[in-house]
Sequence to fold (433 residues):
Amino acid sequence: MVAVSRPMSKESSSKNYDFLTLDDVKTSGKRIFLRVDINVPIDPSTDEILDDTRIRAISDTLKELEDARVILGSHQSRPGKDDFTSLEPHAQRIARYCSQDVSFVDDVMGPLARQRILRVKPGEILVLDNLRFCSEENLDDKPEKLVKTHLVKRFAKLFDLNVNDAFATAHRSQPSLVGLPEVLPSVAGRLTERELKAVSMLLVNPARPCVYVLGGSKFEDKIPVMEHILAKGKADKVLLGGVPGKVFLRAMNPDIPLGDSLPPDIEKEMDRARSILKNYGDQIQAPIDLAYAMKGKRIDCSLNSLPNDGAALDVGMRTVEKYAKLIEGAATVVANGPLGVFERDGFDLGTRTVLESIAKNNGYTVIGGGHLIGLASMEGMETKFKHVSTAGGAMLSLLAGQRLPGVDALVRAAARMRAEGLQITKHTSQGNQ
Ligand code: ADP
Ligand code: MG
Fold:
């Protein structure tokens, strides 16, 4: 039996999310399913992990579960992608960042996995293989559908407690994230707790001026964030780079020659950009120059001398200087997405310089998005920000004012656990004590 160790910690849950945490349950000796998101950049030809930020980020939770029997599950990429690989290298990497014995099983919920799960001793961690090798885990559906999956039904019988530390996947409604908390006592891990607190603060009362820097390629993920933060008055300035920067330049001036710069399906989003400009134009800062590749070299061009063909691959240096000044004067800075195609030599300049300006700011600085935090970690800059989010999509969903299904599931579980009289009576541990 997992007894609740002390009164429920209201404080640790963010305002809108009343879930339980590791403070609320006894974990010693318990068989725990720990859902994490250690979906990391991998070199598909060697299976080498290129950046382990997300693995390091769960170490606080692993430390607190030192006396538990931990069975860790994560996905890695998705079917059809070349980095849709086994979790074996992840298991090896986890061992570097915790004191427990770590082993791996190349199965998710078959007889081999179930046998190994039952044998895990306190102080051990068993890493299951890529949860998405089990096709059900790829469903994105309502909780009532997800509880009927074999994965949820099988896991429900095996575990005392479910700990969800997969904040970066909290915007998905999948069996291990949303189905499992319907049937097992469930609490948030330390990373989920920390991330929610850090990102939610931005929507409460951010210190002013509050400046957002939005770039990257996925315009459709960034525009709902702009709409929400501007409508709620939570941002003073939005500095744009990457594809969002180019889309807004086009929305400001339909005659601007952006050549091959815009994604083909962007026209349908253009109205949203125009509407933002109409309502909040003076808060939007688009690039004032752009960098192109000409004869293999970076050339910065002002807006009135843009070439007719080729794609803009970075913001220009005058833009960077302007952004640096605005960042310097800000009390809160939030950045998501690189300002240019930083993977190409010379076109990392905008993103790197802006990251450095944010790093110098002593206010509340938050960066997120897989590509941007990958660059920050490569540069050894991670510790220079107040919060580095391991999430891309989940952080953006939260900033866009959307609910996170993975966290809502924890809220429902908490309500059920309270109704059960603060006692978790299900599924006592079996196997080797
Ligand atoms: P993040 O992972 O940081 O949230 P995204 O996934 O939205 O960012 O976008 C990252 C990608 O955006 C990078 O691969 C980068 O090359 C691309 N990108 C950045 N600027 C541009 C640009 N001006 N044109 C095309 N692609 C860009
Ligand atoms: Mg990305």
